[in-house]
UniProtKB/TrEMBL annotation:
<feature type="transmembrane region" description="Helical">
    <location>
        <begin position="345"/>
        <end position="367"/>
    </location>
</feature>
<feature type="transmembrane region" description="Helical">
    <location>
        <begin position="317"/>
        <end position="339"/>
    </location>
</feature>
<dbReference type="GO" id="GO:0006817">
    <property type="term" value="P:phosphate ion transport"/>
</dbReference>
<keyword id="KW-1133">Transmembrane helix</keyword>
<keyword id="KW-0592">Phosphate transport</keyword>
<dbReference type="Pfam" id="PF00083">
    <property type="entry name" value="Sugar_tr"/>
</dbReference>
<dbReference type="GO" id="GO:0015293">
    <property type="term" value="F:symporter activity"/>
</dbReference>
<feature type="transmembrane region" description="Helical">
    <location>
        <begin position="374"/>
        <end position="396"/>
    </location>
</feature>
<feature type="compositionally biased region" description="Basic and acidic residues">
    <location>
        <begin position="497"/>
        <end position="508"/>
    </location>
</feature>
<keyword id="KW-0812">Transmembrane</keyword>
<feature type="transmembrane region" description="Helical">
    <location>
        <begin position="402"/>
        <end position="424"/>
    </location>
</feature>
<dbReference type="GO" id="GO:0016020">
    <property type="term" value="C:membrane"/>
</dbReference>
<feature type="transmembrane region" description="Helical">
    <location>
        <begin position="229"/>
        <end position="249"/>
    </location>
</feature>
<feature type="transmembrane region" description="Helical">
    <location>
        <begin position="164"/>
        <end position="188"/>
    </location>
</feature>
<dbReference type="InterPro" id="IPR005829">
    <property type="entry name" value="Sugar_transporter_CS"/>
</dbReference>
<feature type="transmembrane region" description="Helical">
    <location>
        <begin position="142"/>
        <end position="158"/>
    </location>
</feature>
<feature type="transmembrane region" description="Helical">
    <location>
        <begin position="112"/>
        <end position="130"/>
    </location>
</feature>
């Protein structure tokens, strides 16, 4: 069957009902926008965010520089850069970190930033691949399952690295797969949720990422003597997720619908309704939001080229990638910059991760009142101001605490931005290209993350200056994006463009009437 015939067949059947409605209407009117089914599904799927947090932030602990000591006594050892040859020893043993095992200090210190940048380069490459697979033949659930399997496997192999360059290769492969976990999970978790709750629930996904960072800090504190064991312990949960969680997760009904599998979409919606204590009448079927034009075209494909064919979508995507890039440099930079704060590493990481959680709560509470755009601008400017302030505070004595406090507020604001951009981006694009667009956004994020470790190496003051300037620029760029609050989640490109034109005309009429 050709794609045209498949679409006509799906369109004509509409799931067997004569009264065809969109998925948003089916959820709002019949199945329930956010009930027991969506809550269970959301928690199970979003738990995957903890996995990406562990794969990403394990570098903070595995690549740390432990303390050195001189067994012969103070002043009796030679140059610290010579390490054991000059009589120095690592306090927790040479196997405590990659830095200690391979001597990544002094002239070799750049290799720490290099492997971290390579990991994010892998994330950037994988985002495009798995974003396309999620929107096309593999689906949301299949893509999430695949990236969890690959990241867990490569994480275990990383623990066996015999030398630095093999370690770099495995971190690249881990990033290639792990970097797609969050956005694959986000789309699968939020697409079955109705429009009234999608924004608030969507901002709750990042709690799991912060929780994963805090949990990793606790695990790392228990395995300070072996970076290899730390990689094993932080990778096994990804494989356990596939066995324990994935079997109880459903595919997105929106993906089923745009892939012309209307009966499967209706089956999921009826399951949602049944679990929520509701029912969908037999006369109700499903329709795409541009069904009026369905006879005139074939099934829309799902690649980034389709986004670039639309002037509106193209401009949005480019802005979104740039803003996310700037946000990522600041967010990951502040997270990795704990090594420059000269405070207990494990405590600093936990404090930073806990500082993110109030940001998610604040954005969730304010989201429905102020919209996506004003909050995103405000959170980026907040982070920029406090990062700039931190650059002016000396890193000595009690002032270290004040500097850390400014950094915490900075990460508070940028964590809120990161959270808001997920919801914002998912509403800026239709279902057929949503994961592709989020994949491009993720690539922008990974490009920023590649730069972040390099910025951290610039010293104690310069990183804060860079973070402050980039955050302010990002906040100003958000002014160019449209507001999406209380707008429908469109299925197709044509449906979105048609709906937005109608909405714009309605706003103009309302404005003119108010002036009269």
């Amino acid at each position: 069957m050709s794609t045209t015939e498949a679409l006509l067949a799906a369109s004509g059947s509409g799931g067997g009902g004569s009264n065809r409605v969109s998925i948003d209407d089916a959820l709002a009117l019949h199945a329930g926008e956010f009930g027991r089914w969506q809550l269970r599904h959301f928690v199970l799927v979003t738990a995957a965010w903890m996995l990406e947090a562990m794969h990403t932030m394990v570098m903070i602990f595995a690549d740390r520089e432990p303390a050195m000591w001189c067994p012969a006594g103070d002043g009796r050892c030679g140059d610290r850069c010579a390490g054991a040859a000059a009589g120095w020893e690592w306090e927790q043993g040479s196997g405590s970190s990659t830095v200690a095992e391979w001597g990544l200090v002094c002239g070799e210190r750049y290799k720490v930033g290099l492997v971290q940048a390579v990991y994010f380069a892998g994330c950037m490459m994988g985002s495009g691949v798995f974003g396309h697979m999620s929107d096309s033949f593999l689906g949301r659930k299949g893509s999430l399952q695949l990236v969890c399997f690959l990241s867990g496997g490569f994480g275990l192999l990383t623990s066996l690295s015999p030398n630095y360059w093999v370690y770099v290769a495995f971190r690249l492969l881990t990033g290639f797969s792990a970097g797609s976990i969050c956005f694959c999970s986000f789309v699968l978790a939020t697409e079955p949720i109705g429009p009234s709750y999608r924004g608030v629930v969507g901002t709750s996904t990042c709690y799991f990422f912060s929780g994963g960072i805090a949990a990793l800090a606790g695990i790392a504190a228990l395995f300070q003597s072996s970076w290899r064991i730390l990689y094993i312990v932080s990778s096994l949960p990804s494989l356990a997720f596939i066995l324990v969680v994935v079997p109880f997760v459903s595919e997105s009904p929106r993906w089923y619908l745009v892939r012309c599998r209307t009966d499967d979409a209706m089956r999921v919606l009826r399951e949602i309704a049944s679990t929520n204590g509701k029912s969908i009448p037999d006369c109700v079927g499903l329709r795409l939001d541009d069904e009026d034009d369905i006879i005139k075209k074939v099934v829309e494909t799902s690649s980034v080229l389709d986004v670039f064919r639309s002037q509106t979508m193209r401009a949005r995507l480019m802005l979104l990638v740039i803003i996310t890039f700037l946000c990522s440099v600041v967010y990951f930079g502040l997270t990795l910059n704990v090594v420059n704060l000269k405070i207990n590493l494990y405590i600093s990481v936990v404090v930073n991760s806990l500082a993110e959680m109030p940001a998610y709560l604040v954005t969730a509470v304010l989201l429905q009142h102020f919209g996506r755009k004003p909050l995103t601008i405000g959170s980026m400017l907040l982070s920029g101001v406090f990062c700039t302030t931190a650059s002016l505070i000396p890193n000595v004595g009690a002032m270290r605490v004040a500097r850390m406090a400014c950094g915490v507020v900075g990460i508070f604001g940028m964590a809120g931005t990161y959270n808001l951009l997920l919801v914002y981006a998912s509403e800026l694009f239709p279902t057929v290209v949503r994961t592709v667009a989020l994949g491009c956004k993720a690539q922008g994020s990974q490009m920023g993350a590649i730069l972040a470790p390099i910025v951290v190496l610039l010293g104690e003051r310069v990183p804060f200056v860079v973070f402050g300037v980039l955050a302010i620029i990002g906040g100003l760029l958000v002014l160019c994006l449209p507001e999406t609050m209380n707008k429908p989640l469109y299925d197709t490109m044509a449906g979105m463009e048609k709906g937005e034109r109608s909405s714009k005309r309605g706003d103009e009429v309302a404005t003119s009437n108010s002036l009269i």
